[in-house]
Specification:
The structure is a single chain. The protein is mainly β and about 425 residues long. The chain has 1 helix and 37 strands. The strands form 7 sheets. The chain has a 9-stranded antiparallel beta sheet, with no helix packed on it. Strands 21, 25, 26, 28, 33, 34, 35 and 37 form an 8-stranded antiparallel beta sheet that branches. It has a 5-stranded mixed beta sheet with strand order 4-11-10-7-8, with no helix packed on it. Strand 29 and strand 30 form a beta hairpin.
Length: about 425
């Protein structure tokens, strides 16, 4: 109402009617993603909403997002998140105007559980056979619903030779002779692993030793064994170093003694041995002092009266090196000779049947292997001094081993893991694989 009075005392009045509305809540509308949408674990999900208010206008920048599973997600008209947990989420977008009133909208979405990568080996064909030394290319794909293409991180391994390399495609020419199960595996960012396998066989003549670089002693029971009156007299070194061994006692060459049906030399444990004495027939090429080296020994220990098997050097403190059995308990040992100079494993030698043993010394790290697997390792500085190379007798002539021996290989360097595995495979296929 409005009124006015003039000087004569008369009053004029006018009036209008109007209505003043109460503060209204903001209107919130989630526009993406669609209600009920499903996403893979780890997927980037963009949430978008509008928020308008009759009094305050556009409130999009103030929209607050939350999940009933994961809590607060962020603020703004649009946000993107890739870390939502697996399961069903109720996603709410809310905003409050200056008058203290709130508006809210919600949708439901589902985040799938993390899935393992799908790995598929495409080459070579399962069951393929290749000749020794052939370059074999392995190819595979690795697809992950969350992480995409994982081909570059594929890890390849052989159950015979160990790790082969990494990548969608690798080529190897040093696979050891025999049957291999080759596995390609990939692990996604969520820690799940997928794999595929392929069976391949590497064929090779038993006369083909895959690694000869650095070979300074090679004795195999299929060649170079001289027999007189049924007894072994000499065992010739075929490495080219001419480290031939002479017999003591009466070791015997027994046919069809190894698991593969090949002959081996039997020692009676009383006085049988094969040896070369450096003073009368100098040993050629064998590593001395703390020089790197690799030794392979294929043998079967039956009983013993001393720490013996295969050793070279001198029977005094830390001046020997070899693979022997511990007396009297029979564990497998990386030999140095003398208290504190022997690395004793927990693996039995005596009574364990035919064993494929090897040892390396690489930059003062000595490792003892059994059937291709490390069973003992230490850091140790050897001081090998050449006096003899001996099989089946303790190097200081304190006793003997009742045993059978099929092969001895000595290298004047530490073979790589791949080289060692290939030689291991050669010896296993030749002497220990059932025919």
């Amino acid at each position: 109402t409005a009124s006015v009075t003039d000087n004569g005392g008369l009053t004029g009045v006018d009036s209008i009617s109007l209505t003043v509305g109460a503060n209204s809540s903001p209107a919130v509308n989630i526009t993406a993603p669609a209600d009920g949408a499903t996403f893979a674990a780890g997927a980037s999900v963009t949430f978008t909403a509008t928020a308008t208010d009759a009094q305050d206008g556009n409130l999009g920048a103030s929209v607050t997002w939350s999940s009933d599973r994961d809590g607060a997600l962020g603020t703004g008209a649009s946000i993107t998140r890739s870390t939502l947990s697996a399961g069903t989420h109720v996603i709410a977008a809310s905003v409050t105007d200056q008058g203290g009133l709130s508006g809210v909208d919600s949708i439901q979405i589902t985040i799938g559980a993390n899935q393992s990568p799908a790995v598929s080996i495409s080459a070579p064909a399962n069951g393929s056979t290749f000749g020794a030394g052939t370059s074999v290319t392995f190819t595979a794909t690795a697809a992950d619903a969350e992480d995409g293409n994982l081909g570059a991180s594929l890890a390849w391994s052989s159950d015979r030779d160990g790790s082969l390399g990494t990548g969608a495609s690798i080529t190897r020419s040093t696979l050891s002779a025999g049957a291999h199960v080759v596995t390609a595996s990939a692990t996604d960012s969520g820690g799940l692993t997928g794999s595929d396998t392929v069976d391949v066989t590497i064929s090779g003549s038993s006369s083909t030793l895959p690694v000869t670089s650095g070979l300074v002693a090679r004795f195999e029971s299929t060649t170079g064994v001289t027999v007189a009156s049924g007894m072994v007299t000499t065992w010739s070194d075929t490495s080219g170093q001419n480290n031939h061994l002479s017999a003591g006692g009466a070791p015997m060459l027994v046919s069809a003694l190894t698991p593969s049906g090949l002959p081996a030399i039997r020692f009676d444990g009383l006085d049988d041995k094969l040896q070369r004495l450096h003073a009368t027939a100098p040993l050629q090429g064998l590593p001395t002092a703390n020089g790197n080296r690799t030794v392979f020994f294929v043998a079967k220990y039956n009983s013993l009266t001393a720490w013996a098997g295969l050793a070279y050097g001198t029977g005094s403190t830390n001046r020997a090196f070899g693979i022997v059995a511990k007396y009297p308990t029979g564990e497998l040992v990386l030999h140095g000779w003398g208290s504190g100079q022997d690395l004793v494993s927990t693996r039995p030698a005596v009574g364990a049947g035919w064993l494929l043993q090897s040892a390396t010394l690489a930059s003062s790290v000595g490792t003892l292997y059994l059937d291709g697997t490390s069973v003992a390792q230490w850091s140790h500085t050897y001081n090998t001094v050449l006096t003899k190379l001996v099989i089946a007798e303790e190097i200081n002539s304190k006793g003997f081993v009742n045993m059978e021996v099929a092969a001895v290989l000595i290298y004047n360097r530490a073979l790589t893991n791949t080289e060692r595995a290939s030689v291991d495979g050669y010896l296993r296929t030749k002497f220990l694989a059932a025919p």
